[in-house]
């Protein structure tokens, strides 16, 4: 069974709900709160992520994390060049390649919504048939174009929330 999730006109996601390719985190459950240590209110480490084996045709993996509660769909992380043989990223891990996030940094930047507001963060893991031909520091639009032309085999997602602190 496949479920279609429309996040915005610019970001449409298709996630396998019952298929074998799944993304999880040992730090928070899907739909649950992202712990403070992975936000701007804490040390700001990237959260640990785990995934099941991607489809056999996948030659590489890419990751995008977006705050879908903002009008601009604020990008917190772009990562690619991840081996399809890997089964996760440890907390604070640095993937082989990273793009420029909404803060202008080439790294993970954790949730940082205004005090008292709760935002939703969508982690999308793409299994791709072809590697992304992007330089480190690529923009979100360059990343999305590259993912679109890399023959996506499958994608899966994980959603977390975070409430801004005063």
Write the SSE topology.
Blueprint: E1 2-8, E2 11-16, E3 23-24, E4 49-51, E5 60-67, E6 74-82, E7 88-89, E8 97-98, E9 118-128, H1 140-149, E10 152-163
Antiparallel strand pairs: 1-2, 3-4, 4-7, 5-6, 5-9, 6-8, 9-10
Structural account:
The chain has 166 residues and is mainly beta. It has one domain (2-163): PEBP-like (Phosphatidylethanolamine-binding Protein, Alpha-Beta Complex), CATH 3.90.280. The chain is built from one helix and ten strands, in the order βββββββββαβ. It has one helix at 140-149, and strands at residues 2-8, 11-16, 23-24, 49-51, 60-67, 74-82, 88-89, 97-98, 118-128, 152-163. Strands 8-6-5-9-10 form a five-stranded antiparallel sheet, with helices on one face. The protein is globular, with a radius of gyration of 15 Å. The N and C termini lie far apart (42 Å). The model is unreliable at 1-10 and 12-18 (pLDDT under 50).
N-to-C SSE string, H for helix and E for strand = EEEEEEEEEHE
Give the overall pLDDT as a whole number. 90
- CATH homologous superfamily classification: PEBP-like
Report the principal-axis shape: globular
Query: Domains counted in the coordinates: how many?
Result: 1
Short overview:
The protein is mainly β and 166 residues long.
Features:
166 residues, 37% strand, disordered N terminus, Phosphatidylethanolamine-binding Protein, three-stranded antiparallel β-sheet, five-stranded antiparallel β-sheet, mainly beta
């Amino acid at each position: 069974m496949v479920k279609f999730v429309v996040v915005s006109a610019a970001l449409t996601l298709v996630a396998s709900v019952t298929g074998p390719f799944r993304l999880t985190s040992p730090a928070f459950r899907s739909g649950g709160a992202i712990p403070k240590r992975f936000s701007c209110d804490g040390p700001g480490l990237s959260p640990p992520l785990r995934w099941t084996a991607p489809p056999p045709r996948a030659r590489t993996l890419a990751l995008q994390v977006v705050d879908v509660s903002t009008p601009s769909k604020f990008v917190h992380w772009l990562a690619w060049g991840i081996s399809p043989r890997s089964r996760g990223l440890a907390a604070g891990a640095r993937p082989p390649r990273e793009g420029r996030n909404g803060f202008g940094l080439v790294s993970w930047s954790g949730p940082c919504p205004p005090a008292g507001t709760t935002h939703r963060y969508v982690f999308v893991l793409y299994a791709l048939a072809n590697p992304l031909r992007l330089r480190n520091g690529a923009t979100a639009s360059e990343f999305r174009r590259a993912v679109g032309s890399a023959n996506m085999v499958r994608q899966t997602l994980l959603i977390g929330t975070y409430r801004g602190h005063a």
